[in-house]
Amino acid sequence: MKNMKKLVILFLSLFLGMNSVFAYNLILPKEKKTVTTNQYAFFVGKAQNTEIITINDKRIFTASNGAFAHSVKLKDGKNRVVVRSNYSTQIYNFYKTPSSIEKSPLKEFEQRRVVVNKDRAPLRELPQNKGMNRISHLFKGTNLLINGQQGEFYRVFLSKNKIAWIAVKDVDEPEKNEDYTIPTFITMKSDTFKNASVHTIEFTGKLPYTIDETDKEIIFKVYNPEYSDNSVYTVNIRKPEKYVYRTLLSNGTYIFKVNELLLPEGATLDGITVVIDPGHGGFESGAIGCLGDKEKDIALKIGLELQDRLRLMGANTIMTRECDGHVSLDDRIEIAQKNCPQIFVSIHLNSIPDINMNVRKNRGSSVYYYNPNSKELAKDVQKSLLKELSTRNEGVREGSFKVLRRSEYLSILVEAAYMTNPVDSVIYRKENFAYNTARAIAEGIYNYLICDDNKTK
Ligand SMILES: [Zn+2]
Prior knowledge:
Blueprint: H1 2-22, E1 25-28, E2 33-36, E3 40-46, E4 54-55, E5 58-59, E6 67-73, E7 77-84, E8 89-96, E9 106-116, E10 121-124, E11 134-138, E12 143-150, E13 153-159, E14 162-167, E15 171-172, E16 185-192, E17 196-203, E18 209-213, E19 217-223, E20 232-238, E21 243-250, E22 253-260, E23 273-278, H2 295-312, E24 316-319, H3 329-338, E25 343-350, E26 365-369, H4 375-389, E27 393-398, E28 410-418, H5 422-428, H6 433-449
Parallel strand pairs: 2-8, 23-24, 23-25, 25-28, 26-27
Antiparallel strand pairs: 1-3, 3-6, 4-5, 4-7, 7-8, 9-12, 9-15, 10-11, 12-13, 13-14, 16-17, 17-22, 18-19, 19-20, 21-22, 26-28
Helix pairs in contact: 2-6, 4-6
Bound molecules: zinc ion.
């Protein structure tokens, strides 16, 4: 009897053991029980050879390498999701709590002055910390007039026709006993050089500014609402075809410099510096693919290949990381700034956000830019990515990523493919994927800088 029991246990453990050998493996969700505010539960994993996966009785598409991904709409409260195959059944529970999107009310108050307490404090279009929502980055010491508060933001009065928002934490009340007089205008001038223009506006104190771009112009404005509620100083600057720019403020003097991007003279990238930024690294894996691949590893491979390609083309290259270590976003930006590149390329692979995922549609390559001066470069790189990789065209997009916000060099962020899409997982697992992606990015850069005349727009 005792032996019998042992035998049963042996068989049972063998059976269970086989079960785990042959059954699917889920990368997401990480836990069997999840409390979430997401609209969808996301299932990502790898099926074994002959395995047919169903999620809540719906049969799931599996790519040739076993990769699958699927989203399940969650209702408020308890949700039970059954993942089943011929070998294994697993149950996942989700508790969806309503997301707190209640808008805080606007509290208006009498206009008063505050002072920006750090450099690059974002002045925003809307009282929220998301989206393409920055009008400019203000300098420490800038005097602002505020007259309302909504949530974590103060409403800033710039002129009769223009308000903006700034985070409460980015400003301080003025020092008591501060010797303050309302800034006044001193002078303004523009100088044009062969490949640059420099525009200076001088005030007796630090005032807020905004930057706008149209097809032909960069419009730089400084506001002095305390002096007169409609006191706006505007500089319209002709936009070169390829350009970079920077804004400086010392005391009350703004210097706005626009530089035409100097292109290589020959047919090589000689004289061009490119900073290559493989995303994530170290403890920060980035997205995890259906088969367990890590975004940080693929991004690094692409980055190192890109370095080779660009060097062969004559460019000078700088890597923000060359091995699997953690580098903060600020450090990446600092590395770029120190090396005065013409171009900054960040390399990533995408993941699917909280949406009703469509395996055939939510996949492919995209290139992001933030400042309009980088849009054409993004287009050229996207064009050659699609040609080289035969991925789906996810488009050239605006994105407010921290590493893209500098304007003194062109910067783009490449999402080569989707880590969490099964169809894309077949593509990014191909042996030549990193090489081909790198070649595409290098070609896109080359086409942008050199082959301009042959371009079909
Ligand atoms: Zn990433």
